[in-house]
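Anyone up for a design puzzle?
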């Protein structure tokens, strides 16, 4: 169990143990290749063909150096090079080659279309782009050809179909630059759940240590096997999972895309003892019919996060897989994880909190207007300060200033409260709050209630425009297939028995799927847009609703 302490306010001072590694992505790979050259470093699991490819640490370093040599024939250190592709071994090789060459990798969501890709490339002033010929019936080659004339900085366009030819230029070595831990290594664009993406500038020291600390807290063993289908354009995929394994001299098993059956097969076949998956993936693994037939006894810890993890899901997963659970909280602007539960935390803490701050990070719950540290147990905005903070948003000075203050505190935009032992409980997003008649309502509280209903498979609560109240509470629900579906009245009664009247959803929408990012996050802003535009039709209520209390009464209730 973790050492107990009693804080006097919602402030966690930085824990200076373990030490920071002053290193780069390239040096992590070099050190591993020197220590365990023949150990398998990387396994690519192709979800389409069910085939695997694998590299030892020696082979991975050699391949990455060859890519670095080829890159430096076309680019100079500091140039920004984009990658617009789903998960692949070539993506990983490009990432490490760019790191060794001193380039900045600009990660692009493969689901983006022409205008979105143009925005990323223009915003980052990318000098080159690597891309797949097609993705999910989108002709990416045609899009690149179409947008290139409007991008004056873009001079190199390489399709992964031509990867072997590109790498041939690396057969003749060139001198690699000296790269520093504080150098920019990637520009990652925010996932777009709350609006138009901005490019967060990340550095070697941040990505390496945030991943390493998350791995250590999860008790990932040295030389262990880490299985993940997290998308590589996301900080949880290209850093958290991959570097979490590499900093422990382990094996990183990557799926080209999420496939529940194939991921279960890989866990069993590769003897995976750690997986990283967002809640939607965990649910699919747990519900897949092949799971009971497989030997998954090697699996010791499931890591999840990226979006709030409902308390009932945590308990059910631990029971189903007979393993430990760790919840991570972080964001792109902080190079990854900043809070995390411990696998040996009590069931209550696992199910209800996002854990304690990671090593080397100061965290406080602040008044979002004044920045003042709030009393214990009071809801405010999570602010973080330390080595993990991004360098800023690329070429966006004002946006950087509003997020990253001069005193070093980074405003996350997430709401939480801290208890006397330093554990945080998420209550929502500042932009995710519903303000009904002047009363703040936090969607997560309502979602947690609905998650306990036996028929609910997935849920998102958002604010819907209302002429009287300004906003009212709307619940969007996906049901399980094998359980009778409740009516809107049934769910209203279920919530009303557990929540104050003003928190109980007034509108109910039943869907077969949610709009989501490639990393599995539900896009609540899209749900709000669909509701406002009438694209989602609310379910009728038969029982008349009880008159809602006034704001004053609701505050007392």
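Challenge accepted. My sequence:
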């Amino acid at each position: 169990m973790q050492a107990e302490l009693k804080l006097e306010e919602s402030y966690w001072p930085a824990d200076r143990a373990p030490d920071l590694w002053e290193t780069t992505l390239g040096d992590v790979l070099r050190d591993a290749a020197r220590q365990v050259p023949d150990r398998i470093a990387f396994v690519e699991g192709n979800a389409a063909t069910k085939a695997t490819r694998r590299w030892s640490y020696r082979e991975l370093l050699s391949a990455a150096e060859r890519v670095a040599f080829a890159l430096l024939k076309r680019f100079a250190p500091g140039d920004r090079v984009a990658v617009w592709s789903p998960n692949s071994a070539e993506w990983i090789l490009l990432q490490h080659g760019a790191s060794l060459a001193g380039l900045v990798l600009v990660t692009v969501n493969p689901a983006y279309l022409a205008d979105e890709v143009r925005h990323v490339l223009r915003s980052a002033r990318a000098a080159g782009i690597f891309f797949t010929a097609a993705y999910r019936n989108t002709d990416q080659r045609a899009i690149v050809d179409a947008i290139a004339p409007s991008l004056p900085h873009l001079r190199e366009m390489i399709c992964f179909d031509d990867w072997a030819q590109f790498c041939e230029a690396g057969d003749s070595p060139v001198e690699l630059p000296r790269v520093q831990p504080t150098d920019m290594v990637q520009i990652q664009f925010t996932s777009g759940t709350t609006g138009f993406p901005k490019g967060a500038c990340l550095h070697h020291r941040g990505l390496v240590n945030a991943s390493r600390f998350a791995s250590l807290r999860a008790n990932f063993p040295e030389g262990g096997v880490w299985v993940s289908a997290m998308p590589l354009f996301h900080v949880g995929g290209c850093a958290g999972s991959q570097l979490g394994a590499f900093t422990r001299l382990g094996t990183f098993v990557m799926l080209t895309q999420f496939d529940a059956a194939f991921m279960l097969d890989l866990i069993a076949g590769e003897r995976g003892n750690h997986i990283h998956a967002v809640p939607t993936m965990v649910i699919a693994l747990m519900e897949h019919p092949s799971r009971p037939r497989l030997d998954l006894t090697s699996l010791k810890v499931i890591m999840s996060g990226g979006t709030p993890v409902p308390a009932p899901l945590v308990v059910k997963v631990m029971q189903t897989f007979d393993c430990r659970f760790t919840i991570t909280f972080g964001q792109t602007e902080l190079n990854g994880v900043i809070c995390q539960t411990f696998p040996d935390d009590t069931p209550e803490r696992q199910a209800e909190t996002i854990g304690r701050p990671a090593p080397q990070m100061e965290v406080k719950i602040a008044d979002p207007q004044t920045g003042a540290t709030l009393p214990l147990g009071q809801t405010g905005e999570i602010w973080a300060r330390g080595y993990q903070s991004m360098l800023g948003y690329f070429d966006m000075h004002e946006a950087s200033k509003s997020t990253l203050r001069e005193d070093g505190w980074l405003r996350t935009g997430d709401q939480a409260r801290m208890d006397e032992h330093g554990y945080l409980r998420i209550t929502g997003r500042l932009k995710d709050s519903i303000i009904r008649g002047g009363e703040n309502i936090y969607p997560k509280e309502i979602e947690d209630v609905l998650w306990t209903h036996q028929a609910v498979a997935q849920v998102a609560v958002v604010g819907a425009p209302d002429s009287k109240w300004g906003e009212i509470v709307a619940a969007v629900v996906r049901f399980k297939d094998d359980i009778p579906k409740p009516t809107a009245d049934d769910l209203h009664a279920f919530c009303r028995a557990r929540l104050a009247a003003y928190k109980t959803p007034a509108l109910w929408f039943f869907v077969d799927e949610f709009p989501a990012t490639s990393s599995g996050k539900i896009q609540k802003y899209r749900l709000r847009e669909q509701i406002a535009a009438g694209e989602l039709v609310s379910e009728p209520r038969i029982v008349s609703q009880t008159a809602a209390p006034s704001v004053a009464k609701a505050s007392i209730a």
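A detail worth pointing out: The domain at 11-418 is CATH 3.40.50.12780 (Rossmann fold).
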